[in-house]
């Protein structure tokens, strides 16, 4: 059976009120749909930790800085509801754009610091769109826990910062990135790769993991990253927008004794791919 779809906020609020009256905990998995195994792993984590699970599906126009990317974003609502059915999700919340952002909507949530570099520098306005919609989704669902994938590492750090700074009564639960057998991180955008591009894409995680191992082994980061960029471009992946070693929490310069992260964004077949991996600095 497909997961029931709820669209009006008033209907969602009625369900949430009933659950809260019974003392049940609520988990939310925010998505933009086109669900794949990565999303399903978040749903399973939510099911294991909460009495009730809401998946939200909203292709948020405010986080796209390119109208064509927004238009091309895959929309597969019925297939998504069918995938969620067997997992026992209580409801799929698919709000109407006008209810999320009525014409008079005037509030933007902006998180500084963690959003400055990398995705923030290359996609102006993107993180304001994410922070605003995530805050709205948290308020609409009143969830106790929210589940986010580590694939979008910088987004995860933004959401953590947001929840702490605004003292939101919600626990942010990070979940490991899910990868295809060849190592490519699962993403709704992968389905836009040509078959040839899809087979070349495996060079992205391979090069990323290899560079991380070399830095952990004591090779100077700057030289390793220059060589890794050249390897990606030789494998037909490019342009590489960034390939950078950063502090894992603040996304600023890495510091010894703190968890670091190697993050990449690169184009392949006109599709922008991102990935990241933990690095233990020597
Ligand atoms: O990661 C995503 O799919 C989106 O950025 C999110 C968190 C659902 C907000 O629109």
UniProtKB/TrEMBL annotation:
Beta-alanine binds at residue 63. The keyword Ligase applies. Its EC number is 6.3.2.1. Transmembrane segments: none annotated. It is found in: Cytoplasm. Keywords: ATP-binding, Cytoplasm, Ligase, Nucleotide-binding, Pantothenate biosynthesis. Catalyzes the condensation of pantoate with beta-alanine in an ATP-dependent reaction via a pantoyl-adenylate intermediate. Pathway: Cofactor biosynthesis; (R)-pantothenate biosynthesis; (R)-pantothenate from (R)-pantoate and beta-alanine: step 1/1. The keyword Protein biosynthesis does not apply. It catalyses: (R)-pantoate + beta-alanine + ATP = (R)-pantothenate + AMP + diphosphate + H(+). One of its GO terms (molecular function) is pantoate-beta-alanine ligase activity. The reaction proceeds by a bi uni uni bi ping pong mechanism. The gene is panC. (R)-pantoate binds at residues 63, 155. ATP binds at residues 32-39, 149-152, 178, 186-189. Homodimer. HAMAP family: PanC. It holds the Pfam family Pantoate_ligase. InterPro entries: Cyt_trans-like, Pantoate_ligase, Pantoate_ligase_C, Rossmann-like_a/b/a_fold. This is Pantothenate synthetase. Its main location: cytoplasm. Belongs to the pantothenate synthetase family. The active site is at 39 (proton donor).
């Amino acid at each position: 059976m497909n997961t029931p779809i709820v669209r009006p906020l008033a209907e969602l609020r009625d369900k949430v009120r009933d659950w809260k009256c019974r003392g049940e905990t609520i988990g939310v998995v925010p998505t933009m749909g086109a669900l794949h195994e990565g999303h399903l792993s978040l749903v399973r984590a939510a099911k294991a930790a909460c009495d009730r699970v809401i998946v939200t599906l909203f292709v948020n126009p405010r986080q796209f800085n390119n109208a064509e990317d927004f238009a091309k974003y895959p929309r597969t609502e019925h297939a998504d509801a069918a995938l969620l059915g067997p997992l026992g999700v209580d409801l799929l919340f698919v709000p109407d754009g006008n209810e999320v952002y009525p014409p008079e909507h005037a509030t933007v949530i902006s998180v500084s610091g963690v959003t400055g570099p990398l995705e923030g520098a290359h996609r102006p306005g993107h993180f304001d769109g994410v922070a605003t919609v995530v805050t709205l989704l948290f308020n609409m669902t009143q969830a106790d826990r929210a589940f986010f994938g580590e694939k979008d590492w910088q987004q995860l750090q933004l959401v953590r910062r947001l929840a702490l700074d605004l003292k939101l009564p919600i626990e942010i639960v990070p979940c490991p990135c899910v990868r295809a057998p060849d190592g490519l991180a699962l993403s709704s955008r992968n389905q836009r790769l040509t078959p040839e591009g899809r087979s070349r894409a495996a060079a992205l995680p391979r090069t990323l993991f290899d560079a991380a191992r070399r830095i952990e082994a004591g090779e100077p980061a700057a030289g390793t990253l220059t060589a890794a960029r050249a390897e990606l471009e030789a494998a037909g992946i490019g342009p590489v927008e960034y390939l950078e070693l950063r502090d894992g929490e603040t996304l600023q310069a890495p510091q010894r004794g703190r968890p670091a992260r190697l993050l990449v964004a690169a184009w392949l077949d006109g599709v922008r791919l991102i990935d990241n991996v933990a690095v233990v600095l020597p």
